[in-house]
Amino acid sequence: MSFPTVAGRRAGRLTLVTAIGATLLPQPSPAAAATPLDVQLQRARHQLDAVVEEYNQIRADLASTETQLAELTPRLGPMRRAVEQQRGKVGAIAAGAYRVAASYKVGMLLTANGPHQLTDRILVVTRLADNQQKAVANLDQANHHYRKAQQALAMLAASQYKQRAQLTAKRQHVEGEIYRLRQLIDDAADRGTPRPDPNRPRGGAVDTDGVPAPAGITGAAGRAVRFAYSQIGTPYRFGGSGPDGYDCSGLIKAAWTAAGRNLPHNAAGQRGVVRDIGRSDLRPGDLVFYYGDLSHVALYIGGGRIIHAPTYGENVHIDSLTYAPIHSFGRP
């Protein structure tokens, strides 16, 4: 799958986003202009999104490693028994060959009663040699497979250890970013700025009160959209894929799981498995990816609107398509 060229289209896209945003939003008065604290909050939210998606990727990698470990570990026992079995065969054949060699002196071959007896004695010795070669080859092959499996298991165990440490560190990073965002919100409240409404869209004047899921959206996309509507008001929870909380990619994963399609729990991973589409092709159920680092994803529901799990302190809600810089669009 080829990704859209962001560098070539970003300037035009951002200009278009700005223009559309200007038509959708009421023009702010000078007093309503973004304050340094607003800028800090927006930056903190974006940083939190990015760290959460990194956490989700590490968690997915760890789950894959543990699945491979669970599949490989039970196979080691039979492989070890196969090696022991082949080693036993080689030993038995070697012992038999020794006994034959002791009884079949060179003189016995030379004093055979006719060519038929000589041929039979030579065939016995040849068969023993062939059997021994085959047994040794089988032992070598069994040993090779067993050693490779042991090496793979050791590498997986090392990866598991490393990924668990990374996951712990990333979780602490996420918790630190959440704490920092909470402190900024508390500071804003101390200065008289109202605490943000967890259900208030940040992308513009979007009416979300009692909005039913749009009719006429059929198939898998319709099921995904209806599921997302049913989750409006659910709190944001990092690493969450429902039912008591979601992060951005967790909501998308849950919505499309309800539609029968399994997606990764990571925005960049989701971008990697969906079909690239243009903005003019957008239809309900498509995915909208935000920021240059693919740190946020939302579900398009039509009419220039999305449903997403925005960030800490906010609930799943409807927002404007242009609430943040758009990276690209995709269709599961």
Automatic annotation (TrEMBL):
Q: Which residues form a coiled coil?
A: 41-68
Q: Write out the entry's keywords from A to Z.
A: Coiled coil, Hydrolase, Protease, Signal, Thiol protease
Q: One GO molecular function term?
A: cysteine-type peptidase activity
For bias type Basic and acidic residues, the affected ranges are 185-200
Gene3D superfamilies the record matches: 6.10.250.3150, endopeptidase domain like (from Nostoc punctiforme)
The UniProt entry, under InterPro entries, shows: NLP_P60_dom (IPR000064), Papain-like_cys_pep_sf (IPR038765), PG_Endopeptidase_C40 (IPR051794)
Every copy of the NlpC/P60 domain together lies at 218-332
Give me the ranges of the annotated region Disordered: 185-213
Q: Name one Pfam family in it.
A: NLPC_P60
Q: Name one GO biological process term.
A: proteolysis
* Signal peptide (UniProt feature, chain positions): 1-33
Keyword Coiled coil assigned to the entry: answer is yes
* Similarity remark: Belongs to the peptidase C40 family.
What PANTHER family does the annotation carry?
Answer: NLP_P60 DOMAIN-CONTAINING PROTEIN-RELATED, PEPTIDOGLYCAN DL-ENDOPEPTIDASE CWLO
What is the protein named? NlpC/P60 domain-containing protein
